[in-house]
């Protein structure tokens, strides 16, 4: 198998460079078309995310001697399609071939090569990239590389195994996710609780999505501008009813909240101790969790002095995140072991497939020879030639044709002095070795 991956990611290139080599949907279609037209590959998958751009190519006709030239052609194509100097591209590109390329793909899909170790989103992005390529080749009525398809399917099952057998994705390693994880630790279930989110930026959006995925039924969003809060609600696309409040009406929302998660850009404290004290009175002093992930802080630190109030800041969450990162590091070692096993299993399948094809072609060649000579023999018989003579000639020519290639191979080994290869070859053909005869 000749597999090649060219890539740029957050480790090798700045955002400005990564932007230059990103593939839009239209550019990806053009790229797949060019790869096919230029015979760069028999199958290609293009992965393009905010943190990486990778092109996976497979071409079974490329010999080991041609790999370097093929790689250079692929690099030139990559630079040309993005209209950037080849030198600039080569300075920040990484290249893997065959086993290393397969191993890299599996590591990427399992989140081991991500900015956030073990992040799950990348697997969906890899699946989508593969699906786009499959759809393109199907639309073009072109066969998609069986080997590349099998590799990606193997990668998906490997990622599933890693998620099942390790804790790589269980620990929170982002502030938004850590805040939700903390809430789930303190309260047995979030489904029957009322949760107030203060702010409407990217972090609160991530928090909202995490909460909704965990079945939260009562969600409120308070923001300086109602329009932005309403826009966020529309973005979430959920059947859960979400109430929106302005900051002027924050106290009313606070009075209903079991959990408050706040992340705004306000330079001043928004939730004071007195506000929480009043809310607790209205709530009959039920447990209340306040998580402040804003810098500067949104919540008065004195709220933690109140009974039944649990208060955490972004620094507390960073401690949780670091512990979880350490756990993920341990899980990543397990994941690397699984990937090594699955990668070896894939190449074992590939080896069997390649040898099966070799046998298939060898048998097909033999059948072609047989049919050709049989046709000629039947012609002679139809013309009334002597049956015994025709059969003698047929069998003689068939023997010569079938042993021609093995005989040439043995002669080449003899000339090269390859005694070990000759011995192995003769054993395979169940022949007596010349040295054995000499000793008898």
From TrEMBL:
Residues 182-320 form the Quinate/shikimate 5-dehydrogenase/glutamyl-tRNA reductase domain. NADP(+) binds at residues 199-204. SUPFAM superfamilies: Glutamyl tRNA-reductase catalytic, N-terminal domain (SSF69742), Glutamyl tRNA-reductase dimerization domain (SSF69075), NAD(P)-binding Rossmann-fold domains (SSF51735). Its EC number is 1.2.1.70. Gene3D superfamilies: Glutamyl-tRNA reductase, N-terminal domain, NAD(P)-binding Rossmann-like Domain. Pathway: Porphyrin-containing compound metabolism; protoporphyrin-IX biosynthesis; 5-aminolevulinate from L-glutamyl-tRNA(Glu): step 1/2. One of its GO terms (molecular function) is NADP binding. Substrate binds at residues 49-52, 114, 119-121, 125. It catalyses: (S)-4-amino-5-oxopentanoate + tRNA(Glu) + NADP(+) = L-glutamyl-tRNA(Glu) + NADPH + H(+). The record marks 104 as: Important for activity. Residues 6-166 form the Glutamyl-tRNA reductase N-terminal domain. Residues 334-427 form the Tetrapyrrole biosynthesis glutamyl-tRNA reductase dimerisation domain. It comes from the Bacteria. Keywords: NADP, Oxidoreductase, Porphyrin biosynthesis. PANTHER family: GLUTAMYL-TRNA REDUCTASE (PTHR43013). During catalysis, the active site Cys acts as a nucleophile attacking the alpha-carbonyl group of tRNA-bound glutamate with the formation of a thioester intermediate between enzyme and glutamate, and the concomitant release of tRNA(Glu). The thioester intermediate is finally reduced by direct hydride transfer from NADPH, to form the product GSA. NCBIfam families: hemA (TIGR01035). Catalyzes the NADPH-dependent reduction of glutamyl-tRNA(Glu) to glutamate 1-semialdehyde (GSA). Possesses an unusual extended V-shaped dimeric structure with each monomer consisting of three distinct domains arranged along a curved 'spinal' alpha-helix. The N-terminal catalytic domain specifically recognizes the glutamate moiety of the substrate. The second domain is the NADPH-binding domain, and the third C-terminal domain is responsible for dimerization. Belongs to the glutamyl-tRNA reductase family. Homodimer. This is Glutamyl-tRNA reductase. It comes from Rodentibacter genomosp. 1. The gene is hemA.
């Amino acid at each position: 198998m000749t597999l090649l991956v060219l890539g740029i990611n957050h480790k090798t290139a700045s955002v400005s460079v990564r932007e230059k080599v990103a593939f839009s949907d239209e550019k990806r279609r053009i790229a797949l078309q060019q790869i096919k037209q230029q015979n760069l590959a028999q199958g290609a998958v293009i992965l393009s995310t905010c943190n990486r751009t990778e092109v996976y190519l497979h071409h079974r006709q490329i010999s080991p001697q041609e790999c370097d030239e093929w790689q250079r052609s692929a690099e030139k194509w990559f630079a040309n399609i993005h209209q950037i100097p080849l030198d600039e591209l080569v300075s920040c590109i990484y290249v893997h071939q065959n086993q290393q390329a397969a191993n890299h793909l599996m590591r990427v899909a399992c989140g081991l090569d991500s900015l956030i170790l073990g992040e799950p989103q990348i697997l969906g992005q890899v699946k989508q990239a593969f699906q786009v390529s499959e759809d393109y080749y199907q639309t073009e009525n072109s066969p998609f590389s069986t080997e590349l398809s099998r590799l990606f399917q193997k990668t998906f099952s490997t990622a599933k195994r890693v998620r099942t057998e390790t804790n790589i994705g269980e620990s929170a390693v982002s502030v938004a996710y850590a805040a939700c994880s903390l809430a789930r630790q303190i309260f047995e279930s979030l489904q029957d609780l009322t949760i107030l989110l203060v702010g409407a930026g990217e972090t609160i959006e991530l928090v909202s999505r995490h909460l909704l995925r965990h079945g939260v039924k009562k969600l409120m969003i308070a923001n300086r501008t109602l329009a932005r809060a309403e826009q966020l609600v529309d973005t979430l696309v959920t059947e859960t009813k979400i109430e929106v409040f302005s900051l002027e009406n924050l106290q009313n929302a606070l009075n209903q909240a079991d959990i408050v998660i706040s992340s705004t850009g306000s330079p001043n404290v928004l939730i004071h101790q007195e506000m929480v004290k009043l809310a607790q009175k209205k709530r009959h002093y039920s447990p209340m969790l306040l998580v402040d992930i804003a810098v500067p802080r949104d919540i008065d630190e004195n709220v933690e002095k109140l009974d039944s109030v649990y208060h955490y800041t972004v620094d507390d969450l960073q401690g949780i995140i670091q512990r979880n990162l350490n756990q993920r590091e341990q899980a990543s070692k397990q994941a690397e072991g699984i990937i090594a096993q699955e990668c070896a299993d894939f190449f074992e399948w590939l080896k069997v497939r390649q040898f099966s094809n070799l046998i298939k072609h060898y048998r097909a060649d033999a059948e072609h020879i047989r049919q050709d000579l049989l046709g000629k023999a039947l012609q002679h018989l139809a013309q009334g030639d002597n049956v015994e003579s025709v059969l003698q000639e047929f069998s003689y020519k068939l023997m010569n044709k079938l042993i021609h290639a093995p005989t040439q191979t043995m002669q080449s080994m003899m000339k090269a002095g390859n005694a070990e290869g000759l011995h192995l070859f003769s054993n395979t053909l169940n022949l007596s070795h010349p040295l054995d005869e000499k000793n008898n």
